[in-house]
Each structure stands twice: as structure tokens, then as C-alpha cells.
Amino acid sequence: MSHSDETQAAQDEPDEGSFAEQLDYLCKNDPRGPLSNPQVVRMLEEQGLPSFSTTYMWQLRTGRADNPTKKHMDALATLFGVPQDYWSNRATAGVVNSMISRLNGFKESGASPGQLHQQLQSFTKRMNQGAAPEALVEQLETLARLNEAGVTAATLKRLQDARVTGIAMRAVGLSDEGLTAAAAMIDQVRRLEGLPPEPTSPES
Prior knowledge:
Blueprint: H1 3-12, H2 19-29, H3 37-46, H4 54-62, H5 70-80, H6 90-104, H7 113-128, H8 133-148, H9 153-159, H10 165-170, H11 176-192
Helix pairs in contact: 3-4, 6-7, 6-8
């Protein structure tokens, strides 16, 4: 690569911490992705969110356009399932990026991209309702340790409720039969308390 090519490549990289860099990160690391510019535009249109041209999406992602409207910023936040202050609050962005990284780690245990995106939306909703981001990250860390210990995605889904995280940690090292028995007991307690076997999704 010539010096001029290297210079051009450097210019093509979004500035650290900029809107462009954050947008590029989400496109590359969204659990449903990586997502191309045309895919993002199409998804905005399909969800009835404020959209724009593929060319403008490319300009936003590369920093050639750095003045997105609030309407478009909010639409992109909704599409990616992140808080609306993701673009302006570095602390929020750091927490959310950590969540995304951990969620993507569950793909190897069989979790689907759609499920992981819904989980990110759920965490975002809880953050908007006042849940401490650190507590949500800790919950994900717990689930990640369970995942690394060989607990299946199906069992993780049943044990991911923050109120049973302590119970979930005690499940590390159990056999498949033991995990099934533990999940069955949790289901029984939920029935005794008049709850459905599976926690209701916030989006349902």
C-alpha cells in the first residue's frame, strides 16, 4: 500500500468516540449482523422508522456527514436496541458495548441473533426504567460464566431472570440432568406463585 493509500485509509476511519465510530461499531457488532448500509436502511423502512438513503447512511458511518438529526439518531437507536443517549453519553455507550460483546458470546451455545437482539432491547428498557447499568452487566457476566461452563442457551434463557441469578450461579458444574431438574423446580415455584413457566418478554 502506498503512502497516499495509507493516508486515505486513515481518513476513512471514523474518529474515536464520534457518532460515526459508534454507528460503525453497532453495524459490525449487532447480534443480527454484521449489517451493511443497505441492510440498515431497509430495516429502518421495514420497521416504519425515519429513514434516509443508503448514500447518507454511508456518509454517516464514515464521518463524511456528521450532523444527523435527532429524529434519525433516535431511529437508529431504536433499530439497534440501544438507549437514545448512546450517541452522547460515553458511559452509556461503554456499558452497552460491553453488553453487546457478551451477548454475541452466547451464539456459540445456540442462542439466535433475534433472541440476543431482543435481550439487548430488554436490557435497554430496564436501563430506561432506572435499573443500574452495573447490575445488568453483572447479570450478563454471570450468564457468560454459566455459558462458559457448558450451560445450554435454553437453560440460560430460563435462568436469566435477575431474581434467580444466585440460583443460576449454583447451577455451575451440574450435569444436564441436574440442570433440567433445577429448571423444573423453578418452573414449579413460578406456577405456585401464579406465574407462567417462562418470563414474559417485554416486547410481547
